[in-house]
Amino acid sequence: MSTPPAHVRAQLEATGRPFEIIACDPDLSDTAVFCERYGYALEDAANTILVKSKGSAIPFVACVLLGHTRLDMNHTVRRRLAARKASFASAEDTRRITGMELGGVTAFGLPEDLPLWVDVRVMERARVVLGSGERASKIVTAPDTLLALPGAEVVAGLAREAG
Question: Could you tell me if 132 and 19 are in contact, meaning their C-beta atoms sit under 8 angstroms apart?
Answer without folding.
Answer: no
